[in-house]
Specification:
The protein has a domain of 121 residues: minor pseudopilin epsh fold (3-Layer(bab) Sandwich), CATH 3.55.40.10. By secondary structure, the chain is an alpha+beta fold. It contains three helices and twelve strands; from the N terminus they run E-E-H-H-H-E-E-E-E-E-E-E-E-E-E.
Length: 174
């Protein structure tokens, strides 16, 4: 006794079909797999070479590093009960503690010497001071009346903005 394979219904006519192709197992051919892999590789290469992708990630990383350094200097001013100052120029950041150069942490930090930050500039030049209580102050030691803004730019385009809140010294990244 011979068992026949079940017959399939042919779409869209609805007739029964004994088509041999419909009865064999379906799967991907090597050609189909190669085409899919090539398409994925081309899309990955396109995304990886998009201009600005690494620059915006670098700007985010630099903004986080600057925020951490500002908080560190504010904490140092409170811990040691002395005034601390950070000076930001286009490509570097330096710090002083109690009037002397401070070289702890990342200081002095030259952005141009680090490949991941080499295209990023800080605008405008900013000096940020903290009194012995960790409060942001102006040149005369008076509390700030407005926030301090630090912009990270590439090619004239603002990538990230750091805002140091005048009353607390808290740093926000936008």
């Amino acid at each position: 006794m011979m068992i026949k394979a079940p017959r399939k219904i042919d779409w869209p006519t609805g007739h029964l079909s004994s088509n041999k192709l419909a009865e064999c197992e379906q799967g991907f051919t090597y050609i189909e797999l190669i085409v899919v892999v090539l398409v994925v590789a081309i899309l990955a290469a396109y995304v990886a070479t998009q201009p600005g992708t690494t620059t915006s990630l670098s700007a985010e990383a630099l903004a986080d590093m600057i925020r951490t350094d500002i908080r560190r200097m504010q904490g140092l001013a409170m811990k040691e009960s002395t005034a601390c100052e950070m000076r930001f120029s286009a490509t570097q950041c330096t710090a002083t503690k109690g009037g002397s150069d401070y070289t702890g942490g990342h200081f002095p930090l030259n952005f141009a010497s680090l490949p991941e930050f080499s295209q990023i500039c800080i605008q405008p030049d900013v000096t940020l001071r903290f009194n012995s209580r960790g409060q942001p102050v102006g040149g005369g030691g008076n509390l700030l009346s407005s926030n301090v803004i630090i912009q990270l730019t590439t090619g004239g385009s603002v990538q990230k903005t750091l805002s140091v809140i005048a009353t607390t010294g808290q740093v926000e990244i936008h």
